[in-house]
């Protein structure tokens, strides 16, 4: 039986955070982590004056502390809300609580895929760690510093409760033990195989089946703040250029390209190029 080491958990957690940051603020933003070091709560508090602080309380009763540089706030808020907030903005507290909860969920899901159980957590964010009573924080900590490789000023500290590190190793080791007898599944003989051949003759049986045809004019990704600010008369610029062919889909599968036309005061589309025969058949199967 092989126990999952704390360094292995950190490695998987780093992978999850990198994937989360790629989704949140775009490609090229990865986390570089430092070697874990022991730290007391008093030492952590003494160095937390310039950080936005959060305590994540786990269902297991353990907890961990996250310190983020204030410069993280405008980067995250601009990506999520379409506007750059400062760490002094009252709304930034709620925003960072949501971001930390999502990041914890991403790490938890990634660790689960590697047979490491991490409990759910709730976060309490304050401008300064000194706002938390010392007795409410873990006494023995393991500190892991980190920064974004794209900008070393975007940095922070994660301080893990020693109990959390130990319980994570024990839980992952326990879950690796088989809890039931495992045997190959046995199935009765189903007879000779008869597969559907997608030739023209068989497709004739589907001739009366109705398909939903969709013509896509274009797409655009917008921050939630922009969507909420839309009003009558707002213009959304699409990514497709004027004159580019329109995509035609059947049941969500691309079958052709075309151009917009007007037929007796109704819009229509003239097919200018068909997808391959194989692609079109997939829309019907």
What does this structure look like?
The protein has 285 residues and is α+β, with helices and mostly antiparallel strands. The chain folds into two domains: 6-175, Chemotaxis protein chec (3-Layer(aba) Sandwich); 200-282, Surface presentation of antigens (SPOA) (Roll). 31% of the residues lie in helices and 26% in strands. It is built from eight helices and eleven strands. Strands 1, 2, 3, 4, 5, 6 and 7 form a seven-stranded antiparallel sheet that branches.
Quaternary state reads single chain
What portion of residues belong to β-strands? 25-35%
So, the CATH homologous superfamily of the largest domain? Answer: CheC-like
Shape verdict: flat
Order of helices and strands: HEEHEEHHEEEHHEHEEEH
Span of the ends, CA to CA: 47 Å
Number of individual domains: 2
Report the uncertain regions: 169-177
Mean pLDDT: 79
The helicity comes to 25-40%
Calculate Rg over CA atoms: 27 Å
List the SSEs and their pairings:
Elements (H helix, E strand, L loop, with lengths): L5 H20 L5 E3 L3 E4 H6 L5 E7 L4 E6 L3 H10 L9 H23 L7 E6 L13 E9 L2 E11 H14 L24 H4 L9 E4 L7 H5 L17 E5 L2 E11 L2 E9 L2 H6 L3
Antiparallel strand pairs: 1-6, 2-6, 3-4, 3-5, 4-7, 6-7, 8-9, 9-10, 10-11
Helix pairs in contact: 1-4
Which keywords apply here?
alpha+beta, Chemotaxis protein chec, 2 domains, 7-stranded antiparallel β-sheet, 8 helices
Quick summary of this structure?
This protein has 8 helices and 11 strands. It is an alpha+beta fold.
């Amino acid at each position: 039986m092989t126990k999952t080491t704390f360094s292995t958990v950190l490695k998987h957690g780093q992978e999850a955070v990198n994937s989360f940051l790629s989704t949140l603020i775009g490609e090229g933003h990865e986390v570089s982590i430092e070697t874990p070091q022991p730290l007391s709560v008093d030492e952590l508090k003494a160095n937390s004056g310039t950080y936005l602080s959060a305590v994540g309380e786990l269902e297991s009763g353990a907890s961990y502390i996250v310190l983020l540089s204030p410069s993280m706030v405008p980067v995250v808020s601009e990506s999520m809300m379409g506007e750059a907030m400062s760490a002094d903005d009252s709304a930034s507290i709620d925003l960072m609580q949501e971001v930390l909860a999502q990041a914890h969920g991403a790490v938890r899901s990634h660790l689960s895929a590697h047979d490491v159980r991490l409990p759910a957590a709730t976060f309490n964010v304050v401008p300064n760690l000194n706002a938390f009573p010392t007795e409410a924080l873990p006494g023995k900590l393991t500190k892991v510093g980190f920064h974004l490789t794209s900008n070393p000023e975007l940095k922070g500290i994660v301080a893990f409760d020693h109990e959390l590190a130990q319980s994570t190793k024990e839980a992952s080791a326990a879950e690796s033990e088989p809890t039931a007898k495992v045997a190959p599944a046995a199935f009765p003989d189903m007879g000779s195989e008869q597969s559907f051949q997608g030739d023209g003759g068989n497709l004739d049986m589907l001739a009366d089946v109705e398909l939903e045809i969709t013509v896509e004019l274009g797409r655009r990704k917008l921050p939630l703040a922009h969507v909420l600010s839309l009003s009558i008369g707002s213009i959304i610029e699409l990514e497709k250029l004027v004159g580019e062919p329109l995509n035609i889909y059947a049941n969500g599968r691309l079958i052709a390209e075309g151009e917009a036309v007007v037929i007796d005061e109704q819009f229509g589309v003239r097919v200018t190029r068909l997808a391959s025969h194989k692609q079109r058949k997939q829309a019907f199967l």
